[in-house]
Amino acid sequence: MTQSRSTGLLAIYPHITTRDRQLLQLLDDHQVLTTDQIHRMLFHARRTCQIRLGELAALGLLDRFRFARAGGGSQPWHWTLGHQGHRFQAAAHQRPEPTLRASRQTAHRLSANPHLTHLLTANEFFVRLTAHARQHPVARLDRWWSETTTTRRFRTITADGHGLWSVGDTTVGFFLEADTGTEPLGRVVTKLDRYGQLIGRGGPRYPVLFWLGSEQREEHLHQLLPTRRDAVPAATATRNGDPAEAVWLPVGATSRVRLSDLPSDHGQPVADNPNYDDGVFVL
Predict the structure, then answer these.
(1) What is the C-alpha to C-alpha distance for residues 80 and 97, in angstroms, rounded to an integer?
(2) pLDDT for res 7
(3) Range 86-93, long-range pairs (CB < 8 A, 24+ positions)
(4) Percent of the chain residues topping a pLDDT of 90
(5) What is the tens place of the pLDDT at every residue in 244-280?
(6) Residues 244 and 213 sit within 8 Å (Cβ to Cβ)
(7) What is the residue-averaged pLDDT of the chain?
(8) For residues 53 and 59, is the Cβ–Cβ distance under 8 A?
(9) Across-strand partners of 64?
């Protein structure tokens, strides 16, 4: 039985393109993406995207789910790894072979996750940067770490994501706080304490980006954010714009700037700073 399962996966390999492998890795790293998000990152024509996603689902590489809209109709398809996709990624990264039951449980738990909207919101931030880079050759998203990876690598912070964004020769690191309006703003502000501790240990001094759902909440947040010179750098923007453009309002500033214009310091080459390997900065 084990041999037939292995042969079944190998038989799929001739159908997997380089773009398919990119998508499988994205879903392995970030759990779930909508049809529209995948289209903007990897495809030119929406219809081509829809057809290919259907083909990958038929091969068992992808799985999908969606919910009813409150006012009628359905939400967009949410795509995640199917059982064969989990097996392919496990083989690619030398992880244990997942069982069919485990793959199904992963999809079921993801679809029922009460924080699914928050996860999609955080992913959307990086999707927009990726889409911007496709249209602007001088721009690159050099790093996109999920909340899980960010926490594992930086250990003491729980950002919703971390990235390195480059425009030309300028590279800016950042931590994302994707705000969905469910937490009191006072609690949101206290998240900066751990970033301050990271800086104090020689870690990176990256701006913390608060990505908010409304201008009113953004205004109220600025009233609470510390403006001391030694404070953790922070900037805010609402979700109705391109995060690569001049939408970011730093604390204490009166005008908005581009993401690439925010101050950024990669920190010291200390042991627990994942930006360095043997004292050399790595993307």
Answers:
(1) 18
(2) 52
(3) 87/9, 88/9, 88/12, 88/16, 88/24, 88/61, 89/24, 89/25, 89/28, 91/9, 93/28
(4) 89
(5) 999 999 999 999 999 999 999 999 999 889 999 988 9
(6) no
(7) 94
(8) no
(9) 79
Distance set, CA 14 to CA 9, 89, 247 (Å): 10, 16, 44
User: Tens digit of pLDDT for each residue in 9-63?
Assistant: 899 999 999 999 999 999 999 999 999 999 999 999 999 999 999 999 999 999 9
Indicate the pTM of the whole model. 0.94
* The pair of three-digit structure tokens given for residue 208, joined into one six-digit string: 């913390």
- For 80, the token pair is 């995640």
Cα gap 137→150, rounded to integer Å: 27
Q: Give residues with Cβ within 8 angstroms of 58, minimum separation 6.
A: none
Would you state the structure tokens that stand for residue 178, as one six-digit string? 């994707």
